[in-house]
Amino acid sequence: MTDDFNRTAKVLSVFDFDGTLTHHDSFIPFLQFAFGKRYFVRRLVKLVLPTIKCLRRELTRDELKEVLIKTYLTEVEDTWVRQKAEEFCSLYWSKLMRPAGLLAVATEVNSGAEVTLCSASPAMVLQPFADKLGVKLIGTQLEVKDGLLTGRISGHNCRCAQKIKRLESVYGNLADYHLRAWGDTRGDYELLAAAQEPHWRHFHPVWSKKKSRLAKLRQTSLNPPHQ
Length: 227
Description:
- Helix 6 packs across helix 8.
- By secondary structure, the protein is an alpha/beta fold.
- A seven-stranded mixed sheet has the order 2-5-4-3-1-6-7.
- It has eleven helices and seven strands.
């Protein structure tokens, strides 16, 4: 019965963005691009103490993210951020994106699967990337009042269990889907655990080599060479 379900269920393919489809984080480089290096560095000083507290586990990753957003995105026009996001995507696409990841997304789209990005990065920053990929987007929402960002997150940071909750708020019960998921950090564990086809650091060259070596070792142990 399970095999029959897997063959007939709608496929939902979910990709983390930063580090999974990209070579590295995108939000910090976006902030540096949008505000310019001098302004970015001046503000960066305010993050030193919170970062140290996070390393000491006196501050959570989510709380550090909130400090970062408050530091740079308070009283900033949301239309300006969206415009800068368009420019950032256009200028940095080829440097930022992993070719193997792009191919995988295109393969899922062409297969007829429901495809979405699910990321902790702000949705308004990633929207141009989702549009270019031709997929849906679930990301951290930034609070906007009267056209200005307040420097606060609306709801919760979209990582860990929140990824599952956000996906279910859009697609309903994930058990109704054959779930494929791609991720690369602790923030993706719950998503990968829920998937019938989880892919951990699938597009990382070093990790791919390790997987290949492990597969060869496993194959050798199962089929030892004839003496």
